[in-house]
Design goal:
9 helices; Alpha-Beta Plaits; 333 residues; Nuclear Transport Factor 2, Chain: A; 31% helix; globular; disordered N terminus
Length: 333
């Protein structure tokens, strides 16, 4: 199994591999910023990332697979899907590279937990130009992280690559394509909205908008900066005590909620709620249960009507099979 596991983001726009984790003070893990590495290495990382982006923009999944590390090439289906989904959007787009990072993991066995600290850290932690990468179960080797900003007619995007050095080549080890905007807004807009909800005492709305905004400001989910660290601390001040797992009484039943998170659908921002169900085969009954869960949520938290266009309720049975329903807020009565 690849140490890079791949999944699709909630908006179906993200392909990620499992995070990179390093021990904070272990000499076996080091990070070089662009200023620290030599020019040939810096140029090689950026050139490889742009080459792989061009392949993705052409829809050339076969060439990307040929240039991937063996563990990723053996399980390439999700990346092929992401390339297909994004090809029309990325075709002809100009990718601009940010300054790359070089992560070096020494040893003879995968690192169970590793943390790369890049750049200068101060007494209060991260500084403006620093970064931290957190990645579990990482085999020894040299890895490059290159983030590309890709403006398109449909909005801003980032496409990021994790590259692993094999001799003189940099092989594809991870691929991330994600929008920098959802529902017509960027991460900073969501953060400002979260602060506005906080000022009104609407902590549930604030929490979910902080979550969406911070997610948009992270080009890859295993990279942390001064901004994302500060936002994490800020959002803890509004974190509701009753987030799932929790019980929700509604319509004479009690539903065990397992997840609540925002989801952008077109130009709308919806709230997704998942809950436990013994069996979802009776879809007529599950539709009624879904409607009861939605009604129970807005009855308990009427503030949600101000922040979301609708609610998606998904009943999930122990096998993982689920059944979902979407209702606009105006139809939840």
């Amino acid at each position: 199994m690849s140490f890079f596991s791949v999944r699709v983001r909630r908006s179906a726009r993200l392909i990620v591999f499992s995070s990179l984790m390093f021990s904070a003070f272990a000499a076996a893990q080091t990070c070089l910023t662009a200023a620290d590495m030599d020019e040939p290495t810096r140029n090689a990382l950026v050139s490889a990332a742009k080459k792989y982006f061009d392949m993705a923009a052409r829809g050339d999944a076969a060439s990307l697979k040929q240039n991937a590390i063996a563990s990723l090439a053996s399980d390439f289906g999700a990346i092929e899907t992401a390339i297909k989904d994004n090809q029309a959007n990325f075709s002809g787009a100009q990718a601009n590279a940010r300054l790359p990072f070089l992560l070096k993991a020494e040893g003879t066995a995968p690192l169970p937990k590793a943390e790369f600290l890049c750049g200068v850290f101060g007494a209060q932690g991260q500084t403006r130009d620093s970064a931290e990468f957190v990645i579990p179960n990482l085999p020894p080797g040299n890895y490059g992280v290159v983030i590309l900003d890709v403006p398109t007619s449909k909005g801003a995007n980032t496409v990021s690559f994790v590259l692993q050095q094999h001799g003189n080549d940099w092989k594809l080890g991870g691929f991330f394509a994600r929008p920098a905007q959802v529902a017509g807004h960027d991460g900073n807009w969501f953060i400002e909205q979260a602060r506005s909800y906080k000022s009104k005492g609407q902590n549930h709305n604030a929490w979910f908008y902080y979550m969406e905004g911070r997610d948009l400001l992270m080009p890859v989910p295993f990279m942390y900066t001064q901004l994302t660290d500060r936002l994490y601390d800020e959002m803890q001040t509004v974190k509701p005590a009753d987030l799932p797992p929790s019980d929700l009484p509604s319509g004479g039943k009690t539903y065990k909620l397992t997840q609540l998170f925002p989801l952008a659908v077109g130009k709308d921002l919806d709230l997704v709620v998942k809950y436990q169900s013994a069996d979802v085969s009776n879809t007529a009954q599950i539709f009624q249960d879904n409607a009861a869960v939605m009604k129970g949520l807005v009855t308990k938290y009427p503030e949600l009507r101000d922040a979301f266009a609708g609610i998606v309720a998904r009943a999930v049975e122990p096998s993982g099979r689920d059944y979902g329903s979407l209702l606009a807020m105006k139809d939840i009565k």
